Amino acid sequence: MDAVTNAWPQKTREFHNHHFDSTIWNDFAFRNDDVVIATYGKSGTTWTQQIIGQLIFGGSAEISVAELSPWLDLRVPPKAVKLEAMEAQTHRRFIKTHLPVDALVFSPKARYVFVGRDGRDVIWSMYNHHARANADWYAKLNETPGRVGPPIEPPPASTRRYFLEWLEQDGHPFWPFFSHVRSWWAVRDLPNVLMVHFADLKADMPGEIARIAAFLGIEADPASWPTILQHCSFDYMKAHAAQSAPLGGAFWDGGAETFIHRGTNGRWHDELTAEDVAAYEAKVAAELPADCAAWLAEGRLAGNAASLAA
Q: Which CATH superfamily groups domain 12-308?
């Protein structure tokens, strides 16, 4: 990777809101085998954390990715607490971020797995996450000192309205989507970046897990492979949701099983009008390169992004 040292992305800004404090990456000490799982959110993040955790720990049923793989740029708990906890880890670390590349300290020491998903599916999943959040969730995000910008508030009653506000207001009430995807697409050819798509995980989970393992240099024991696959299935994760959801799901009505919801795509078909779909597709066309837009819509295995073939 030394040959492309001069091409490494540089951090050009900080990102703050009710969720983010990007400054934590300025003080994070990378190790040579760190894994960074990068997503917009509700794109298969927890699923990918589970996959990588299972690969690192050889199919163990005891690991809790919610504890072992923190969202580093989430502004709670305080960054000093989080950095100390990360420094104390002795296993191969796998860390979650929801930052775009330009707000992230990007290290040649780490390997980055970016997970994408169609924006309409993202928001249908995000709506469940937001609508089922309880008072403790709002208090933690809004009342913890250091918040920059307005508080996060309850969503509208209509998922369609939620989607349209998100589309029209550039990621409201969370953070911009298209610039986020565009930033990761731009670095997809770096040797320490792997692009993974939610739809591909759904279509061929064993093949995609093997692809991730090869990228990370992990040679799974054949005897443990069936267990790894079982532990990465949606049914297993739903049944063991407390191991995946932050604080065991305490921030959501219905607990951890609300956090691990359906894992399905296409629910937006029943609620968006033809005009809504056209508006989304026009936004995609305006914001993303054509090959990126095709990949985001259907993934690598649909044949729409041959440049990402394994």
A: P-loop containing nucleotide triphosphate hydrolases (3.40.50.300)
